[in-house]
Design brief:
single chain; 189 residues; mainly alpha; 2 domains; 75% helix
Length: 189
């Protein structure tokens, strides 16, 4: 089951967890804190999988909307995905901060390395998802693209499609023409 963490939810969870941790810290009950942290880390070991599934579902939702002729706001979807990923990361980092505190007092948290691997995994997912997200180009990006085109640094659309399909320009144009003929003749290839 995928649970999307909102920044508000993470804030509440952190506030709830922070109180007992502060109390254990005040009492110097580092062994109890280590045990509690280990249990929390193990209980949340599916966070990277949930983040990955949330990313997948955001793509499915976008495809379904497009297939049904509905317009979607890709930028809003990207911001929502980023907020969900960042909330998960914030929670994991919160735990990691307490793990570091506990370890500095000589305690061992058996799942500490797993936690750090989870953080690295979610950071990697975040980078992959958001670096490749179809964001609307900024004004500056549009201006740079136009300048590249005007300098002759762009690629012809037929050459781009041919290259993307591993074809020569001539092979690509022949396929396009064959498709046009098939459609004009009422056939559907």
């Amino acid at each position: 089951m995928v649970v999307q963490l909102s920044p508000e939810t993470v804030s509440v969870v952190r506030a709830i967890l922070d109180k007992p941790f502060r109390l254990m810290e005040k009492r110097s009950d580092w062994p109890a804190m280590a045990t509690t942290l280990d249990a929390l880390i193990r209980a949340n070991e599916d966070v990277p999988g949930d983040v990955r599934e949330t990313w997948r579902l955001s793509g499915v939702t976008s495809k379904e909307a497009a297939a049904n002729g509905r317009l979607i706001d890709r930028d809003e979807n990207g911001r929502n995905l980023a907020a969900t990923i960042d909330a998960g990361l914030a929670f994991l980092r919160f735990l990691d901060g307490w793990v570091s505190a506990v370890q500095s007092h000589g305690q061992v948290v058996p799942s500490a390395e797993a936690l750090r691997a989870m953080i690295a995994d979610v950071e990697s997912i975040r980078s992959e998802a958001l670096d490749n997200w179809p964001w609307t180009p900024t004004k500056e990006e549009w201006e740079e693209a136009i300048a590249e085109f005007e300098r002759g640094e762009s690629v012809d659309i037929d050459d781009a499609f041919a290259a993307a399909n591993g074809l020569s320009r001539e092979e690509w144009l022949r396929l396009v023409e064959d498709r046009r003929r098939a459609l004009a003749g009422g056939g559907d290839r």
